[in-house]
Design a protein that fits this description.
By secondary structure, the chain is mainly β. It contains 2 helices and 9 strands, in the order E-E-E-E-H-E-E-E-E-H-E. It has one domain: Nucleoside Triphosphate Pyrophosphohydrolase (Alpha-Beta Complex). The chain starts with 6 loop residues before the first strand and ends with a strand.
């Protein structure tokens, strides 16, 4: 297996009216797994700039990027894929997730806000997502390396 550098990605913890914004990025209903919106970092743009771009592409919204809240790592031991996600607290500044919005990259197929108690009825990653997202701002958390799931 060829060794590869980890991929760096940014993700947003957007709470609005005590509900957390999540997306499903599995076209064709391949998986029911939900995650925080965001994506890969493009060189030459800051982490907040990358995150704002991703939120607009995936959800059609604008956000103000706040402090770092979580560092999460996952990998696929079979392929050597390894990703480091940096989660930032964000505030919605304009727009609203529209079920009819089309992600230009055709990756995100669904987006919506979930109340904390609704998270018990869905699959999401990382496991620490509700604990971190609904906690008061403070020091950033770290989730150790885990195997990828679909």
């Amino acid at each position: 297996m060829k060794t590869r550098s980890p991929r760096l990605a940014v993700r947003a913890l957007v709470l609005h009216q005590d509900r957390l914004l999540l997306v499903n990025a599995y076209p064709g209903g391949v998986s029911d797994l939900w995650c925080a919106p965001g994506g890969g970092v493009e060189p030459g743009s800051s982490l907040p700039e990358n995150l704002c771009r991703e939120l607009h592409e995936e959800c059609g919204i604008a956000v103000a990027v706040g402090p770092l809240a979580l560092v999460n790592e996952f990998h696929d031991p079979r392929s050597g894929f390894h990703q480091v996600d940096l989660y930032f607290r964000c505030t919605l500044t304009s727009g609203a997730p529209d079920p009819a919005w089309v992600d230009p990259a055709d990756v995100v197929i669904s987006r919506r806000f979930f109340a904390r108690d609704e998270l018990a009825g869905i699959r999401f990653k990382p496991d620490s997502l509700p604990e971190v997202a609904f906690a008061p701002p403070g020091l950033a958390h770290y989730d150790p390396l885990e195997e990828i799931v679909a």
